[in-house]
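Milestone M4 deliverable, item 7.
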Amino acid sequence: MDPALESHTDILACPDCRGALRSMRTNDGLRGLSCPQCSLVFPIKEDIFILLPRNARSSALENDLLVDLERSFSESSSQEIAGALGNTLRLINESPRRKTWEWEDEEFWANEYSAESEAISEKNWNDRIWQRDFLIDGLLKETTLSGKTILDCGCGEGQDFRNLMARHCDEATLYVGADISFDGLRLNRKRNPCKNSLYVLCSADWLPFKKGAFDVICYFGILHHTFRKSETIRTGSELLRAYGHMLIHEPLDRPSPIPESLKGGGPEAAHEETVDKRTLLGDIGAAGDLTVVSTREFMTILYGGMMRFFRSSLIRNETAFRLVVRSDMSLTKILGPAIPYFRPREIMLLVRKGALTAHRQ
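Output delivered:
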């Protein structure tokens, strides 16, 4: 592992107790992290930190890594490390064989990223990029990304950071990609132009980072895949520094004019769900120190229909796409209050930790 990146591990914490972690080193360098309080060990694979909570530990992913660690530390380790390794191996092999919420989703995304890594060209993400530049434009009016620490929660292959944020960063910016998919993190690292990056395989419900570790946290379409949904924002608020920002883009609950049995489309992740707007705003308010700076709501049946029948054309024509979005937002404001089908299906929020007064860093 690059020593410069290894120095950033001080932002990592135990996903169970949120306590500080200790480095486990051999002559080959950093091999794992241990939590003295929980007496557990967390392995590293291909410079990706695996920091899963107790209920989501994976024997398939971690067993061989831990056995190798046990072999490496068998003669030189203290009783504390030996005990932690033994505890961890028992934990992952005695856990129920059912898949937890995180791993039910991961099965779908592993297939997605595996196919993507073998594809001749990258997937066209223009619709999401052209939507989310609203959040980046708002963020850059408030702060700079130079020298900041950015958490991309549920980062996948990193298309949002790569296309929207990387060009505004400098060598001192630290990008932290967090996801449950090892294949997604590996693909992210391959494509990421920002070399000052750290990759963590973890659960978005139980983020393994210290309080006040980040200046920016991105929740780009990830909260609706988690068990705790928008409640996760309260934990995220603790991870933000003063005047830090959250970027949120999530699907909302809304009646559909089309019965589920008649909807087309390909396979979806196990938890392709939605969030409740009132609950989302309530969880932001419950954090106590978060302020919504700007918001945008869109995706009526107009947008849905246009993207269903003309998607291939729209994602190649930015002018036409933005015209559809503006028309869609107008319908949301005019017809949404009276007609459920014209209520927004998606919401984007730029949220600041701190007072409403302007504060540029």
